[in-house]
Amino acid sequence: MFGIAVTIAGCGGESAPPPPRSCDTEQAAVAAAETANTAADNASKEAKGKQEAAMKAADAASAEADEARKAAKEEAAKGDHSATGSARSAEAFARSTRAIAKHTQAIADRAQAREDADKAQGKATEAATALAEARRKLEDCRK
After folding, report:
1. Could you tell me the pLDDT band of residue 89, with boundaries at 50, 70 and 90?
2. Which of 106, 130, 143 is nearest to 36 (CA)?
3. CA proximity to 131, closest of 139, 82, 93, 56
4. 3-state secondary structure the chain
5. What distances in angstroms separate CA 46 from CA 34, 39, 43, 98, 124, one per listed residue?
6. Out of 31, 51, 63, 64, which residue is the most buried by the measure of CB atoms under 10 Å away?
7. CA nearest 111: which of 45, 74, 58?
8. pTM of the model
9. How many Å from the N-terminal Cα to the C-terminal Cα in the chain?
């Protein structure tokens, strides 16, 4: 009699099938990871673009500094010691100094842009890894 009561009460050896799994949490994690991955990828591309622009600016500033330095040397080589000659020479050297300063700043900007691009790439890599992990967990949940 006790065995019949247990079986009727649902406490027998057979268990009910498990309810279907809800993978809503995992699906939400994948969606969030995809959004983060896209944002990080876009930021990385933008940083790389800025790095390329900074490299071009540094190259242009270098060329400008070389030209200004050459012009200053040529002006000094003329040997014109009159007031006008001295003024032209001083102006040429001032342009050269400004161009060198601009080139130096462009080098610093290029280094900063490279650092920013490296950081953005690192974040993009982390986001891609997080997305892959979230997708793996979703697949595991669906099994």
Report:
1. confident
2. 130
3. 139
4. CHHHHHHHCCCCCCCCCCCCCCCHHHHHHHHHHHHHHHHHHHHHHHHHHHHHHHHHHHHHHHHHHHHHHHHHHHHHHCCCCCHHHHHHHHHHHHHHHHHHHHHHHHHHHHHHHHHHHHHHHHHHHHHHHHHHHHHHHHHHHHC
5. 18, 11, 5, 29, 12
6. 51
7. 58
8. 0.67
9. 41
Tokens standing for 76?
């000094």
User: Which residue pairs from 29-32 have beta carbons closer than 8 angstroms and sit at least 24 positions apart in sequence?
Assistant: 29/134, 29/137, 29/138, 30/131, 30/134, 30/135, 30/138, 32/134
Residue 48 to residue 42: CA distance in whole angstroms: 10
pLDDT (tens digit per residue) in 10-66: 555 556 555 556 889 999 999 999 999 999 999 999 999 999 999 999 999 999 999
